[in-house]
């Protein structure tokens, strides 16, 4: 039993169950077969998934998906994949995809580590973005933070040369932790100089979470790194 516990895989999330609205439930049932990608199986052929060859952006932890859908709508020349474990958020994004008639956005309801290791080929992504992950602000919980050396190395492998990782947080101490991890990853270079935060990019739509934080006076720190 002890050995089994020791081999338990690290997860990129803590599952938060929530109540689905009737509309979200209908979206999952009706649209899921077309828009949801299976976390099991061989490496995805992204050209086959989207029916074309285009740069692909992967977002991990998209919340309710409004920001991701806004990006997909603004950039029809690019393809987007979102990963989220919060089922109501997945249902909400499927509703939004249908409402906006988006054909360049697909969704995983799964653990990001599982998806990256099994389904995303090395060197296949143009952008990976992680906006406002849980900061796990208590020191004893820091080991649960998503941005850790092994995970960032995995992300870097999935980027095409010149591909970017874009992170954002509204927690100052987590921002410094992110800087430490990213700066120590040899495959990545800071787009704005050593240990520099990025000006908030105009291409990143503000999330509902971010807007609430700004009303409360929270700062926001963006980090952008490129695959060397």
Automatic annotation (TrEMBL):
GO terms for molecular function: tRNA (guanine(46)-N7)-methyltransferase activity. Its EC number is 2.1.1.33. It holds the Pfam family Methyltransf_4. It is an enzyme of class 2 (transferase). CDD domains: AdoMet_MTases. Substrate binds at residues 138, 170, 207-210. The keyword tRNA processing applies. Belongs to the class I-like SAM-binding methyltransferase superfamily. TrmB family. Keywords: Methyltransferase, S-adenosyl-L-methionine, Transferase, tRNA processing. It catalyses: guanosine(46) in tRNA + S-adenosyl-L-methionine = N(7)-methylguanosine(46) in tRNA + S-adenosyl-L-homocysteine. It comes from the Bacteria. This is tRNA (guanine-N(7)-)-methyltransferase. The keyword Acetylation does not apply. Pathway: tRNA modification; N(7)-methylguanine-tRNA biosynthesis. Catalyzes the formation of N(7)-methylguanine at position 46 (m7G46) in tRNA. S-adenosyl-L-methionine binds at residues 59, 84, 111, 134. GO terms for cellular component: tRNA methyltransferase complex. The gene is trmB. PROSITE patterns: SAM_MT_TRMB.
């Amino acid at each position: 039993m002890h050995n089994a516990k020791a081999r338990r895989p690290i997860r990129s999330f803590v599952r938060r169950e929530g109540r689905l609205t009737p509309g979200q439930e209908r979206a999952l049932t009706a649209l899921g077969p077309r828009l949801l990608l299976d976390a099991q199986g061989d490496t995805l052929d992204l050209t086959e998934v989207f029916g074309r060859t285009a740069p692909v952006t992967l977002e991990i932890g998209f919340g309710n998906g409004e920001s991701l859908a806004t990006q997909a709508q603004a950039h029809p020349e690019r393809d987007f994949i979102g990963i989220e474990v919060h089922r109501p958020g997945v249902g909400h994004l499927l509703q939004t995809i249908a409402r906006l008639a988006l054909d360049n956005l697909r969704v995983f309801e799964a653990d990001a580590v599982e998806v990256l290791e099994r389904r995303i080929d090395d060197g296949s992504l143009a952008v990976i973005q992680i906006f406002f992950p849980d900061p796990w602000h208590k020191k004893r919980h820091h080991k649960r933070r998503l941005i850790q050396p092994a995970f960032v190395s995995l992300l870097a492998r999935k980027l095409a040369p010149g591909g970017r990782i874009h992170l954002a947080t509204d927690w100052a101490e987590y921002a410094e932790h992110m800087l430490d991890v990213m700066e120590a990853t040899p495959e990545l270079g800071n787009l704005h100089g050593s240990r520099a935060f990025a000006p908030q990019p105009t291409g990143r739509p503000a999330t509902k979470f971010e807007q609430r934080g700004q009303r409360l006076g929270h700062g926001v720190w963006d980090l952008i790194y490129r695959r060397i």
